[in-house]
Design brief:
about 325 residues, alpha/beta, Rossmann fold, Helicase, Ruva Protein, domain 3, 2 domains, 5-stranded parallel beta sheet, two-stranded antiparallel sheet, globular
Length: about 325
């Protein structure tokens, strides 16, 4: 119990460190930490200037792990991400030079500006946590989390993310504009331009890896598991949906709610954890019928309706 209390304290220190840098975004920070501890990847979709890059930089400095940034553009090649094998004359052999994906925290900036071929190079890293170069396989470090950003309003020179890749992001979140009080606090701060650079690590990547193992041991009652399944199947049966949530989505939601419970200092999942995370975990995986989209229906609304119509378990074992 003392060990678990210490790990809870570390998670609170991570949260406080990020909130000291990223103002007014407690909910978004909580979701980012949830994905990190659940071993998932995050897609941040928002307009420029809302703090997406600062948030990822702040997280990287907070956990003291290796951080790499990939700035996507149409000229980016798959080898620019995974790395290359270069022939070394002195040793008369090929030596692998790792690419930026070989890090604990990888920021893929403006992912929708990379070509589909380059985007597909990320799939193996996201799903298998490894890269293959010239037939040789290289494991990625632990922890490994990819956080991609995209601008939802610029379409010139962009490529739509394929459904298979969207399905590998555990969550899709948006930061949005700050409220007036927070924005004023930001502009009068002497460190407003680069607040993340001043942060000091509060944990190590090894400690984060241990916390991830603790998350896997959070209890999931059979009734809550059934609740998750009913929600997943409800997205497939909704009249406005062409393609509902996949089995991978069910696995991602399960991992996410375990991490959510852990961050709330509980060793068991409750239905409210599922309600809280259903939309950010499921909405970006759902494809609506064309007619539904033209009528203004949104995937988030579908998930909210399904959750609202799904009966909540009232008895659970702990």
């Amino acid at each position: 119990m003392e060990t678990r209390t210490a790990e809870y304290r570390l998670s609170n220190e991570i949260r406080r460190n990020l909130e000291s840098c990223i103002l007014g975004k407690r909910s978004e920070i909580e979701r980012l930490l949830t994905a990190l501890l659940a071993g998932g990847h995050v897609l941040i979709e928002d307009v420029p200037g809302t703090g997406k890059t600062q948030l990822v930089k702040a997280l990287a400095r907070t956990i003291g792990g290796q951080f790499r940034r990939i700035q996507c553009n149409p000229d980016l090649l798959p080898s620019d991400i995974t790395g290359v094998a270069i022939y070394h004359p002195k040793h008369e052999s090929f030596i692998f030079r790792p690419g930026p994906v070989m890090a604990n925290l990888v920021l893929v900036d403006e992912i929708n500006r990379a070509t589909t071929k380059t985007q597909s190079a990320l799939l193996e890293a996201m799903e298998e946590r490894q890269v293959t170069v010239d037939g040789d396989t290289y494991d990625l470090p632990v922890p490994f989390t990819m956080i991609a950003t995209q601008n939802p309003i610029e379409f010139d020179g962009t490529y739509t993310l394929p459904e298979a890749q969207l399905d590998r992001f555990m969550m899709k979140i948006s930061l949005g504009y700050p409220d007036a009080a927070t924005e004023r606090q930001m502009i009068v701060s002497p460190n407003a331009t680069s607040p993340a650079e001043l942060l000091e690590p509060v944990v190590t990547s090894a400690q984060v890896a241990l916390m991830m193992e603790e998350v896997k041991r959070v209890h999931l009652d059979n009734a809550v598991a059934e609740y998750i399944v009913r929600i997943i199947r409800g997205t497939r049966e909704h009249a406005g949906v062409q393609l509902g949530a996949s089995p991978r989505a069910a696995i991602s939601l399960t991992a996410a709610v375990r991490a959510c419970a852990y961050l709330q200092e509980r060793d068991y999942v409750i239905p409210d954890d599922v309600k809280q995370l259903a939309s950010p975990v499921l909405a970006h995986r759902i494809i609506l019928h064309t007619e539904s989209r033209m009528n203004g229906l949104k995937a988030e609304e579908v998930v909210q309706a399904v959750v609202r119509d799904t009966s909540v378990p009232v008895r659970m074992e702990r």
